Amino acid sequence: MPRKIAVVTGTRAEYGLLYWLMRELQTTSAAQLQLIVTGAHLSQAHGYTVKQIEEDGFEIAARVDIKLDSDSAAGIAASIGICISEMAKIFEQLKPDIVVVLGDRYEMLAVASAALVMGVPIAHIHGGEITEGAIDESIRHAITKMAQIHFTSTDTYRNRVIQLGETPDNVYNFGAPGVEAIKRVTFLNRAEFEKSIGFVLGKKNLLVTFHPVTLESGSSAWQMQQLLAALDLLSDTHIIFTLPNADAGNAELISMIRDFEKTHKFVRVFASLGQQRYLSAMQFIDAVVGNSSSGIIETPSFKKPTINIGNRQQGRLKPASVIDCEPTTKAISAALEKAFSKDFQESLYSMKNPYEGGETSKNIAAILLKAELSLIQKKKFFDIPVQ
């Protein structure tokens, strides 16, 4: 009998990171892939990206609409409750042997909570990382303690998962799935990319993604205002925005970005570019700007600068291509000037991306298929010897 492996995705970015793992599971007779779609994938406001999943040829085993009608903290909490309840029903119906969750989103906290209660072993990807400016920080570590198998993106993060009490034999570092995707995706050339987005690139180009800063209440809109003011000062620069994710406070940020697009000829906004177009864009831009993890994990493989604004990603391991700056117009403008400089861009040619692994998805799939699930359900806390 094939092992039933449930994979849950709730956002466009996470789907891109899970894509090649799902392809590995889809093409082996030893696995039965059970794809569960939830969160922003089913929201019109966030691009209804479930369409992309269907177009990619994946069979969806279940859809869980968690009613992302409100971007308030109370609304998000209500969505978590809905997700736990509905996921329990799905697990009862599908009876997976193991469930795979990635990252630190509140949807995945709900999935892991339901799986824990239902007795479904959990495999967690991207544990051990630190992002001190968002509630994702606590969620990530909470999922680590619920999970039995761990796939980290660097040895530093593997050590941190072990520090949290996880048995070293069940913690693997195979590199970041997003970096592996760069090697496997067929990129669009410049003309194909411009046609696909209906937008002609300029002399200089930026790719901008700015998410709500969930642990700095009330500051996200002000930070976005500072960012837009800095972008407004640029000349001969074309700007591609991808919209914020479905965190509390996203609606106001989306409104500000849409208004900026209306008054700026060389700005285009997308709810989602999809993996191929997003990675293809990296070839042609001069820098990634915002506070998304993709600027820290994937962008360095393109030898391109990242301007990381504010504290959302504070604590994450950062390559030399990342320029940290305060969320002020003056600081962002200075960071842009540095990113555009020939000296800084040339300094990145020999840089190595610390998140790069080998055959990440193939290695994860192999562990998922051979792990002795009956032996890992009862976890022992691994104590690191005190010096």
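the 2nd protein, sequnce then structure:
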Amino acid sequence: MKISIPDLCLVSLIGVSGSGKSSFARKHFLSTETVNSDHCRALLSDDENDQSVTAEAFALLHQIAGARLKLGRRVVIDATSVQKESRASLLQLARDHDCLAVAMVLNIDPKICEERNVTRTDRTLKTHVVRNQHRALK
């Protein structure tokens, strides 16, 4: 399958934790194009799992994404974005910079995501978190 994406656009990788967003981004996009919400948390608190800095992390994510779009560069958002509100802010960011918004939804069976999350060494997620994210995605 070949997917063509414009050079200037905001791509949002949407999916529950463990759906493969980061792996997909590494395989298909430049590392410089990808802005990862967990990485933004780590930049601010030295811990990508620190939920207490989520608001600040997403402000940073939007700032970086906006700067890239202003410079005419593609930006790929690697965050769950399963809630309508989080996608709305990304759509507005694309509108603010007169560029296309592209959604790529990784709708993976939640059981697979749960299994992947169990083997992760970088974080621990409760099963109900993945189920809640999957419900929001639907």
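The two ends are 24 Å apart (CA to CA). The chain has six helices and four strands.
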